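Lecture 7, part B: from sequences to assemblies.

Below are the input chains for today's worked example.
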Amino acid sequence: MKKTISQATIDRLPLYFRTLRLAEEESLQIISSDELGRRLDITPEQIRKDLATFGQFGRKGIGYDVRELKERIGNILGLHNHWRLAIIGIGHLGGALANYVNFASLGFSVVALLDRDKKIVGHKVNGIEVCDIARMKEIVASKAVDIGVITVPADEAQGVADLLVAAGVKGIWNFAPIKLSVPSTVPLVNEDLSVGLSALSYHMSQE
Amino acid sequence: MKKTISQATIDRLPLYFRTLRLAEEESLQIISSDELGRRLDITPEQIRKDLATFGQFGRKGIGYDVRELKERIGNILGLHNHWRLAIIGIGHLGGALANYVNFASLGFSVVALLDRDKKIVGHKVNGIEVCDIARMKEIVASKAVDIGVITVPADEAQGVADLLVAAGVKGIWNFAPIKLSVPSTVPLVNEDLSVGLSALSYHMSQE
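Predicted structure of the full complex, as structure tokens:
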């Protein structure tokens, strides 16, 4: 699957995946685009268009096979890889992410926590011991870490990214409000919690 | 400004705003779409297209007036309203949001924290006292809360949303992994941290 899919569609796929997983837990076998749309607040037209990007799914007038569609979307998103995360910077945000339940439901697992603060190193968060950041390379190898999650302050983030790349992680998820330089072979996604809040501000200003 | 702007463009506006604010701090007066693009990893064409949505900005071959463009985007996003937030559910995520520095940089301020757990009520987080959720209506009025931020577990989220609406908040930012029912007059934005992580998984799977 090397076809390019729009970022907006990629952003909706995890929502489809979670909704289908819940439908599967309800023992639903078939779901219509109308019902998916109702559960997600997305128009059925948008859903049919998104799913058509990946080829022929579902049958007209009947709906989508819940399990088949869920598996297909999970494969497109690469969730079958069961990526293993290390969080670097165990402050408020890092601690919250170490405890965030939604990751497990999508097949991600947090396997390592790192910090440079000796006062935190050795403590456990959600059952995982916080290790000294000086042990990055050893931890990434021994815990088979795929993804580095950066939750350190902005002025420390590039240094942490360099350490992660040198340690051989396959991707970086950055929460620090700074543009990081990483090799093009290491995918990087920047997260900014104020983007959603600004979108809310925009909608409130239209009222 | 009642014109509809695409969600993707709205999502980029806070990034433009922050980059322009940093440029302003560097005493930059004019910035080109090339330079904005370099700082944001967005193509100059996309930037010119996004900004053209709001009318005529900038001058060909010269660039955009940093301060003017920043103010204009801030106005479109409604940031001049200096929205006041109450966070409901002071667990790991709620505590992280109470300490999240990026909000202040965009003009949002956290003015109230609420929880139903008597063990947390009365404690201070980032200088703000956690109040009992039973005092919701009184707190929303006395602290002039505009936005309710929901960080309680999924099975408590609808109840909290109902309390927020009854207390008169103008918007809701929901982190609970559940679809909430609120009146159409109260804008709602759902946040799901695993969406960004899934996008990273997608890109890693293409490598």
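Note for the exam: Strands of chain B lie at 30-31, 64-65, 84-88, 109-115, 124-125, 128-132, 147-150, 171-174, 188-190. Keep this in mind when comparing with the next example.
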